[in-house]
Every structure is written in structure tokens, then in C-alpha cells.
Amino acid sequence: MNLANTAFVLIASILVLFMTPGLAFFYGGLVTAKNVVNTMLSVFIMTGVAILLWISLGYTMAFSGDILGVVGNLKHVFMAGINLASLTPTKIPVGVYSLFQMMFAIITPALFVGAIVGRIRFKFLLAFLAAWSILIYYPMVHLVWSPTGWLAKLGVLDFAGGTVVHINAGVTALVLSVWLGRRLKVDSQHHYNLPWVLLGTAILWIGWYGFNAGSALAINSVAVQAALTSTIATGTAMVVWMGLDIWTTGKPTLVGVCTGTLCGLVGITPAAGYVTLLGSIAIGGLAAITSFYFVNVLKPKLGVDDALDAFGCHGVSGIVGSILTGVFATKSVNSAVTTNGLAYGGGFHLLGIQLLATAFTIIFVAAMGCLLIYLLRLVMPMRVNATEEKLGLDQGEHGERADYTIGLSERLSTYTADQERYANEFKGQLQHLQHHSSTHSV
Question: Does the first or last residue of the chain, that is N or C, have fewer Cβ atoms within 10 Å of its Cβ?
């Protein structure tokens, strides 16, 4: 065991786990007050469910054996027969590698929750999560990250999850939005808590170092490069989105800056360990521009109610990052790059592979997602009824509410009214002192 590499990947795993509650704050701050609990719970419950699914079926389906280059086998259900102390090529235990991959299996389905807030039944979401993990996510992991996977053999480059995580979750979000239909009335109220949005964004950015740098699976120059490119692409996207906000509306917005930040993180994910610093600037900027255009121009024309722009951010920026990896990847950064990207004299070979992998991911996820939704709808309702949707899913699905300050505000307003009514009484001894002073003055 390489102690440094093992400690590094353990810390990276913890950082990736930290991203899921961060995402809960990000999405919870964006929705309106009546759907905060449902949104945050829908994200956070992925943690427990995905852990159990990964241990029981995920690892063996992703990394054990091979069936047609698409999925593994079921020889190691519940990790049976796996020597967790055996070492990977970077001399970390298989148990640690499995833990690291488990965290990706948690955060990925949590991403598509943002598209469907305020109208999906919680029980349907849980059933869909289980089916989606088994029939879509684990095969995608095998296809791209298992050495025997079809896309891996083709030579696709996906450093930390452009296809596996972001395009996958983004397309799933779009498919769910289409099947659910538009909300009865799109709330024009303010976001529940903008400081939560910033808090969630900051947690996601911090966690993303585990996501991207951790994917080097070792303390080496590639991990350093991934950390640097992730930082630079994210900063670029943040500034570009703010500039586009000012250019189009005249005002910079906190939600816009946070959204741009997330687009930069998403865009650089597939390329982080393969591109130069200048390449990361290009990817971050182009990801922000493309997602901004989709969210503000194209999405209104499509009429799809992706409530928190899960596809517009993760799907679109993931597609941009995956394709641009074929343009900016270079052997000078990572020896795993066998053919340079288009910008470094490698021709269209790598770009063609990236385009094929991106298109395959979109088609596979969309087709399987539609099939799963169709089958699940035969046995359970997908959408809450109109009464519950108007009431809000916090009360309708969970019998809870997030706005704990309402009761306090009511008590404070009552206290203020009483204070005015009994003003002299509240002055206490001070009242007599003031009365004495005024009499003496006279």
C-alpha cells in the first residue's frame, strides 16, 4: 500500500461525499419556501440508498467481469469474494477505490433532482433512483471506466465523469422534466435563501477537488494539473457568466455567478487531467457561454420545465467539456493521452472518439430513461395531484416545513405591538427617573 496515495484518495472520497449535502443547500436555496424540505431530502436520501445499491450490486456490475463491453457480472454481489486489501495500479487498496467510486454513485443521481422539484412523488423518485442506478449508471461506469468497457477500449477520455456523471445526470433530468410536464404555476416568488445558494456552491467547489484531483488516484503531477485546471476553468466560467448577465440585463446576480461557477466545474470535469491551463480557460469560458445561451434563450423556446436548470448546467456544460477534451487534450500533460487533441496536432481522431462517446451517452441515457419511466408509471403514479402541488411538497409529502422563522416572526410582531400598547409599563424604573427629571427642570 502506498500510504500517501491511499490517504489522498480517502480524503478525496470524503470531499466527494461532502458535495451531496452541498448540493442540497444549493438546490434548497433556489426553490420556493413550500418545497425546501422535499428538495433537500430528495438530494440527501440519495446518500443512503446509493450506498446500499453500490455495495450490493454497483461494484460488481461496474468492475467485475464483462458482458458485451456494456456491463459487468454479478459474481461479487455485496462485495463477496473481493479482497478489499488487494492493490490497484497506484497501490491503493481496492476497498478505498470502491469507496471513492461509491461517492460518485451518490452525487450523480442527486444532480437530476433539481429538474423535477415541486411535482414528483417521493416514492416514485426512490423507485426510479434504484432502477436508474442498476440499468443506466452502473453500465455507464463499466463502459467508460472499466478497462474492458466498450468506450474505454475505443480510447474515450473522461477524467472524472463528463459522460458518466454530468451528461448522464443532465439528460436524465431533461427526460424526467418532459415526462412530468410543466408545473401548474411557475412560482414567481423569490428564491428561498440566496445565502444557502452561495454556501452550496462553495461546498461543491471545495468538494470538486476530491472529484477531479482525486480521480488521478495518486499524489502525482496529474493530480496537481487537475486541481489547477479545475480552479482556473471555474474562475473563468464564473466571470464569463457574470459578464453575460451584465451584458443582457445590466445587473450581475448572485444566482448567475453561482450557476456560472457550477458550469465551469462541470465543463472541466472530463478534461481536468488531460489539458493545459490555457485549455482550461477555453473550456470554462465556452461551457459558461453555451449553458447561458441554453438557459436564457433556447430553454424558453423548448417549453421544458427543468426547474433548476439541471440539464442546462450539467448536461450542456458536460457535453461541451466532453467534446472539447478531444480538442485540448495533450500528451504533454498526461501520458495516458495516446493521441493529441485537435489543437495540438492530433487531427480529428480523438475529437471523433469524444463525439461518438458523447452522442452514445445522450442516446443511451435518454432511451433507457424513457423506458424506465414508462414501466414505473404502469405501477405507481409519477406526479403529485394538483392539490398537493399547490400546497407544496413539504407539507404534502413530508408534513414538515423549512421556514422555522415564521413562528418567531409572529411572536416578535406580537411583542412589538404589546410593547407599544404598554409603553410606560416597559420603561420600568426609567419612567420614574425621567418623570422626576422633568419635574425638577420645571
Answer: C
